[in-house]
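Usage

Read records sequentially. Each one opens with the input sequence:
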Amino acid sequence: MTVQSQQHPGTSRVAAAAVAAGAVVSVALGVYGGQHQPTGQATFTLGLGSMIAMKVWLALAVGVLALVQLVSALWMYGKLGRPAGRAVAITHRLSGTTAILVSLPVAYSCLWSLGFQSYDTRVLVHSLFGCVLYGAFVTKILALRSRTSPGWLLPLAGGLLFSAIVIVVLTSAVWYLNTTGLPTGSTGY
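and closes with the structure output:
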């Protein structure tokens, strides 16, 4: 038994429960996406002209918010050389909440219209990490809310969440911009 587990006997259970809950969310999204018959039709556009345009612009916004999350987390953990004030913590919380909320219309549109796809490597990686993203989010929130979670769990879950966002944005919005250019109102479904 380690010193840490002697001090906090529930630490391992909290970590296991948070990781298990995140895994359940990831797998459930993947199973749903694989079993659901994709409609191939636009769900909504949020006034951005087409579903593709909406997904590209919102995914890019999530990517920028993820960068804000990274910088503010590094600052709060003392990795940027200056102490983080209350404003940094508030910025971190608001940018994270906004990133998840902005990502939801994109995720819904992907799952409903396209489902879990694997016809090429980029699409498979995008589908996998789209599911991992929300599982990592659940794990991070559970780690954040628990007073007995191990110190390594929150930065690990946050790092996985950030990595998943980066991979999803690179395999979707950035790929689209590189292959097609800026989306217009009539681009795609």
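Summary fields computed downstream for this record:
- Residues 1-7 have pLDDT under 50 and may be disordered.
- The chain has one domain: 13-179.
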